Amino acid sequence: MTRVLVTGGGGFLGSHLVERLERDGHDVVVARSADYDLTSMEDVARMFDDAEAELVFHLAAEVGGIGANRANPGRYWYANLTMGAHVLEQARLHETPKLVIVGTVCSYPKFAAVPFSESDLWSGYPEETNAPYGVAKKAILVGAQAYREQYGLNSIFLLPTNLYGPRDNFDLESSHVIPALIRKMVDAEDEVFLWGDGSPTREFLYVEDCVDGLAQAAERYDGPEPVNLGAEKEISIRVLAELVAEVTGYTGRISWDPTKPGGQPRRSVDASHARELFGFEARTPLREGIERTVAWYRSAVARVGR
After folding, report:
1. What is the spatial distance between Cα 127 and Cα 303, in angstroms, rounded to a whole number?
2. b vs e for 66-93, b when ≥16 Cβ sit within 10 Å of the residue's Cβ?
3. How many CB atoms lie within 10 A of CB 190?
4. What gap in Å lies between CA 66 and CA 295, rounded to an integer?
5. 14 within 8 A of 8, measured Cβ to Cβ
């Protein structure tokens, strides 16, 4: 049994990881924002003191879709940068045996060759609408590598592609594309309005597959280089919208607004290093994952009576 600390453990990805770790018999400390403000070094120090963890997963982040990133560029840059820096420093001071940091696919350059290879992470500037968030996360990678070199801190850095699944954020002001599509199509009758023209592509990783990758990397990987986690399946937003409509049974009109930004033109990762280094393989087909997510959302709506 290992004593494990999970920052952001009450969130979407974190809650699934905590369940997995507890099933595996670990003693898990869940760090929630109500208990610790990770932008405060004092709070992060107290969190590490309280947890006395042998393994730390840093998942906590302030993040959202295109609209949320456009509305909060300063906050997303500051919060994500300071949270990561504080966690690194306290992991060093507490001599934490291992730290797993979750980065973001938004750190990749806007026009990186597809599929994204880890070696292309520094070949250009991120897509503008999420650049502050992506750059902040990329700076944490630099910090992790520097702390490894100077202090011997064993921290690894993982880059999951777009996540989705049960318990995702379905708030239309801050949600990502799959939960936003699901909510709009479940709730709508005649027409839904979507940003852009539907041509940008994305790759989606089911949340439980991502959890598998995190657990496998924590157990088997100890290198300084960042590693992608993905399903290696690229799909356009237009085709995705049609798939969500089919799964939800939505038969109304889908209207696109090309005056609104569509985000990065293409996004898909090369996950071969994860396969080679620690045996990661995404197992959940996109349609099956969406079906599970739709079922969860409908049951959640039924529970609250909305």
Report:
1. 38
2. bbbbeebbeebbebbbbbbbbbbbbbbe
3. 7
4. 25
5. yes
As a whole number of angstroms, the distance between CA 27 and CA 111 comes to 42
Written as six digits, the tokens of 103 are: 């980065």
Is 133 noted as a catalytic residue in this protein?
yes
Q: Compute CA 42 distance to the chain's CA centroid, rounded to the nearest angstrom.
A: 26
Annotated catalytic residue within 133, 164, 206, 221: 133
Angstrom CA distances, 249 to 99, 171, 207, 235, stand at: 43, 21, 23, 20
- CA dist 137 → 55, 192, 228 (Å): 20, 33, 14
Full pLDDT tens readout for the chain, 306 residues: 899 999 999 999 999 999 999 999 999 999 999 999 999 999 999 999 999 999 999 999 998 888 888 899 999 999 999 999 999 999 999 999 999 999 999 999 999 999 999 999 999 999 999 999 999 999 999 999 999 999 999 999 999 999 999 999 999 888 889 999 999 999 987 899 999 999 999 999 999 999 999 999 999 999 999 999 999 999 999 999 999 999 999 999 999 999 988 888 999 999 999 999 999 999 999 999 999 999 999 999 877 655
Find out whether 29 and 80 touch, Cβ atoms under 8 Å.
no
Tell me the whole-structure pTM to 2 decimals. 0.94
CA–CA separation, 187 and 94 (whole Å): 48
Q: Which residues pair with 257 in a beta bridge?
A: 195
